Amino acid sequence: QVQLVESGGGLVQAGGSLSLSCAASGRTFSSYGWFRQPPGKEREFVVVVRKSDGTTDYADFVKGRFTASRDNAKNTVYLQMNGLKPEDTAVYYCAAGVSVSYSSRYYTSPSRYDYWGQGTQVTVSS
């Protein structure tokens, strides 16, 4: 059974930091994505992490503040979020894909990912 189990998240003041993790089990994936869904808005791409070479691509609104990484031995990906802003408030989702892409047309699209975590709430107070 394939599972993506997220942990982390919570409530933090603006300027603070939080760390999310996502542990995958049940099969091997080639890429992982973090997405988020702010209240009343659609799900949006945050970052992609590629398993083989560890390369990442970020959405512009998190560049310089968020850092994604992976630990292949643990089948786990991480999202370190620094300098959090109230507009970062959202449910954050981990997603995993069996394929890998270096085209933003594809890796930013939720439909390119095959499995999803349950989501974890991140709330940033002003």
Explain this structure.
The chain is 3% helix and 50% strand. It has one helix at 104-107, and strands at residues 3-8, 10-13, 18-25, 31-37, 44-50, 56-58, 66-71, 76-81, 90-97, 115-116, 120-125. The strands form two sheets. Strands 2, 4, 5, 6, 9, 10 and 11 form a seven-stranded mixed beta sheet that branches. Strands 1-3-8-7 form a four-stranded antiparallel beta sheet, with no helix packed on it. The model has no long low-confidence stretch (mean pLDDT 96).
What key attributes describe this structure?
126 residues; 4-stranded antiparallel β-sheet; 7-stranded mixed β-sheet; mainly beta; globular
List the helices and strands and how they pair.
Layout: E1 3-8, E2 10-13, E3 18-25, E4 31-37, E5 44-50, E6 56-58, E7 66-71, E8 76-81, E9 90-97, H1 104-107, E10 115-116, E11 120-125
Parallel strand pairs: 2-11
Antiparallel strand pairs: 1-3, 3-8, 4-5, 4-9, 5-6, 7-8, 9-10, 9-11
Tell me the fraction of residues in β-strands, as a range: over 45%
Bulk shape: globular
Helix coverage percent: under 10%
- What would you report as the Rg, rounded to the nearest angstrom? 13 Å
What is the typical, i.e. mean, pLDDT?
Answer: 96
Kindly summarize this structure in a few lines:
The chain is mostly beta strands and 126 residues long. It has one helix spanning 104-107, and strands at 3-8, 10-13, 18-25, 31-37, 44-50, 56-58, 66-71, 76-81, 90-97, 115-116, 120-125.
